[in-house]
């Protein structure tokens, strides 16, 4: 199996123009997937429980640091521009200034961290996949909780911005740990079978 590549790199065209278009499609597709997962939400106050975090970290692992960051950035720009892609169909710059603004910015940094680690093969084993996803979540919470602590309306940051999400995050991490290494094993079997077919 190839090293220092993500799943998306396996099918990236060699020709520069085609490769640029390929990257563009992945970035826009990734941003739309994040927006779709954001609609899977439990409306808690001040921060809802959503599928965004799982989508961000999985996309980063699949696309890598650069494309993952651009996908998240595109998602944020889409929402800020008025597309209803933020949690529960919300949109506008007001969301970035609200309770969830820190988490949204943290998505960019987390996408870089997880994508960077995936490019180094961390998504190919269960143990390192779990660690990469934990680190990604820590980055998101660092931004989100710091932002919440600056808002006068929030007086118990951990109870309102961290504790309600722990169980859901553990489930998302477990799902990622099941999907990513299994996907690489499947790709390895397909690659091996293809080589055998060519040799016959």
Compose a concise summary of this entry.
With 200 residues, this protein is mostly helical. The chain has one domain: Arp2/3 complex 21 kDa subunit ARPC3 (Orthogonal Bundle). The protein has helices at residues 16-38, 52-63, 65-80, 93-96, 101-118, 126-149, 157-161, 166-199, and strands spanning 41-42, 49-50.
Q: Give the overall shape.
A: globular
Q: Biggest sheet, open or closed, and with what strands and sense?
A: 2 strands, antiparallel
With strands numbered from the N-terminus, the spatial order across the biggest sheet is: 1-2
Tally of helical segments: 8
Radius of gyration: 18 Å
Report the CATH C-level class.
Answer: Mainly Alpha
Number of strands: 2
Domain count: 1
List the keywords.
about 200 residues, mainly alpha, Arp2/3 complex 21 kDa subunit ARPC3, two-stranded antiparallel ribbon, 8 helices, 2 strands, globular
What does this structure look like?
This protein is mainly alpha-helical and 200 residues long. The chain has eight helices and two strands, in the order αββααααααα. α1 packs across α3, α3 runs antiparallel to α5 and α6 runs antiparallel to α8. The protein is globular. The chain starts with 15 loop residues before the first helix and ends with a helix.
Write the layout of secondary structure elements.
Layout: H1 16-38, E1 41-42, E2 49-50, H2 52-63, H3 65-80, H4 93-96, H5 101-118, H6 126-149, H7 157-161, H8 166-199
Antiparallel strand pairs: 1-2
Helix pairs in contact: 1-2, 1-3, 2-3, 2-5, 2-8, 3-5, 5-6, 6-8
């Amino acid at each position: 199996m190839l090293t220092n590549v993500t799943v998306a790199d396996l099918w990236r065209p060699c020709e520069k123009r085609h490769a640029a278009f390929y990257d563009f499609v992945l970035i826009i597709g990734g941003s739309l997937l994040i927006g779709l997962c954001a609609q899977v939400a439990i409306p808690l106050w001040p921060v809802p429980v959503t599928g965004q975090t799982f989508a961000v970290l999985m996309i980063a692992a699949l696309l890598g640091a650069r494309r993952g960051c651009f996908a998240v950035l595109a998602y944020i720009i889409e929402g800020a521009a008025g597309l209803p892609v933020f949690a529960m169909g919300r949109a506008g710059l007001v969301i970035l200034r609200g309770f969830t603004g820190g988490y949204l910015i943290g998505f960019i940094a987390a996408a870089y961290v997880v994508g960077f680690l995936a490019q180094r093969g961390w998504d190919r084993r269960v143990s390192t996949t779990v660690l990469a996803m934990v680190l990604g979540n820590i980055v998101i919470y660092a931004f989100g909780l710091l932002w919440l602590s600056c808002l006068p309306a929030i007086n118990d940051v951990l109870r309102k911005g961290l504790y309600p999400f722990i169980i859901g995050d553990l489930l998302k991490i477990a799902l990622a740990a099941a999907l990513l290494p299994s996907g690489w094993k499947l790709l390895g079997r397909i690659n091996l079978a293809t080589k055998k077919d060519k040799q016959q």
